[in-house]
Design goal:
Number of strands: 14
Radius of gyration: 20 Å
Helix content: 25-40%
Strand content: 15-25%
Number of helices: 10
Mean pLDDT: 96
Bound molecules: nicotinamide-adenine-dinucleotide
Distance between the termini: 58 Å
Shape: globular
Order of helices and strands: EHEHEHEHEHEHEHHEEEEEEEHH
Strand order of the largest sheet: 8-9-10-7-11-12-13-14
Structural class: alpha/beta
């Protein structure tokens, strides 16, 4: 595959549920690719795939044996990511896998080893990296728009009750690997590293099981720090009414602040301001290509990565993000001081 052009990559999707159907499949098409096959045990998902013009398989193995599939996007529940990615690697298929990379750190380690052994391109689908507003914020930080960055604060929350879906695997610790923390915090952790261009190295967290009454955390607060001393604070939650302000990103620096509202999420748009640190005046931060779908940009970027190795995908980096999550869950267990 390497050396070929990136246009028109033929994708197979394993797990054709909410995110695959509503965001990834349209993103593949808008990014210049083709959706040629889908694998999903749910007949309703296969029906939707056939209606979209894709070959519909019940089992992932059949899709992976299809020579017409050049790359695979994985959007099954979290606990199945490992087996599917290992099978894709063994079949020699490049693979873009949804976040979190896996339900456990051990699974993520096995996946990293499998793709390295097979030599297949791998990426975790951190679509926030590909949001036009976040690309603009990264550029502004690099240009010194806020001076020396001191902190990044992110709120990313939603309402997810026990009946949120007919089979709500997100509330099942064995299938999800955790709750709001493992589901929502990977986006923020990865985004902080993307915006700053440096890894987080220290992390701590507290979780709560406050509202929803299921076995996984319905909220969490994380604090983290980069090697150069930038602090990050993430509030993630499944217990926040959707009508409240719940998607907010702030980058604080010695000469200004960037404030982004409603940019975190699957869709383009949102508002981004640059606030001057001397007078406190705010003006909009220009966002090139503001209406482009983060998923379309992500799919096109992965196609280029498959074609020539260019771009910003790394299994090792995504494994590091999984290790931050594992440390966040472990850290909160040590806290009680009664
Ligand atoms: N990047 C994002 O913004 C984003 C948003 C939502 C979900 N996600 C991630 O995407 C993944 C899927 O989430 P969802 O909300 O679409 O879930 P979902 O429950 O809507 O869809 C999962 C699909 O996987 C199918 N499936 C189950 N077992 C399978 C198997 N063995 N082989 C193939 N398919 C199988 C199910 O039938 C279902 O259609 C999760 O890892 C989730 O964390 C990412």
């Amino acid at each position: 595959m390497r050396g070929r052009g990136s246009a028109g990559l033929s994708w197979g999707i394993i797990g054709f549920g909410w995110v695959a159907r509503d965001y990834a499949a349209p993103g593949i098409l808008a990014g210049g690719g083709r959706l040629v096959a889908v694998a999903d045990p749910d007949p309703r998902a296969r029906c939707a795939a056939a209606a979209a013009g894709a070959r519909a398989h019940e089992a992932a193995e059949a899709l992976l044996a299809d020579p017409g599939v050049q790359a695979v996007y994985v959007a099954t529940p979290n606990h199945l990511h490992r087996a599917v990615v290992e099978a894709a690697a063994a079949a020699g298929k490049p693979v873009l896998c949804e976040k979190p990379m896996a339900a456990t750190l051990g699974d993520a380690e096995a996946m990293t080893a499998a793709v390295a052994r097979a030599g297949v391109p791998y990426g975790t689908a951190f679509d926030q990296r590909h949001h036009p507003a976040h690309a603009a914020i990264r550029g502004a930080i690099a240009d010194g728009a806020v001076g020396t960055v001191t902190a990044v604060r992110i709120a990313y929350a939603c309402w997810l009750d026990a009946d949120w879906a007919p089979d709500n695997w997100r509330a099942d610790p064995a299938r999800a690997g955790g709750g709001a923390l493992i589901d929502l915090a990977p986006h923020g952790l990865d985004l902080v590293e993307f915006l700053l261009g440096e890894p987080l190295e220290a992390v701590a967290a507290l979780t709560q099981t406050r509202v929803q009454g299921y076995a996984v955390d319905d909220g969490a607060m994380l604090v983290a720090r980069t090697a150069r001393g930038v602090l990050a604070q993430l509030h993630v939650a499944y217990n926040c009414p959707e009508a409240l302000p719940r998607r907010r990103l702030e980058v604080l620096g010695t000469s200004g602040q960037i404030l982004a509202e409603r940019t975190m999420g699957q869709t383009p748009g949102g508002d981004v301001w640059l606030i001057d640190g001397r007078l406190g005046l705010r003006r909009p931060l220009p966002v090139p290509d503001a209406g482009a779908s983060p998923f379309a940009r992500q799919m096109a970027a992965f196609a280029r990565f498959v074609a020539d190795g260019s771009g910003d995908f790394s299994a090792a980096r995504d494994l590091h993000t999984m290790s931050l999550l594992a440390r966040a869950y472990a850290a909160q267990e040590c806290v009680p001081c009664r």
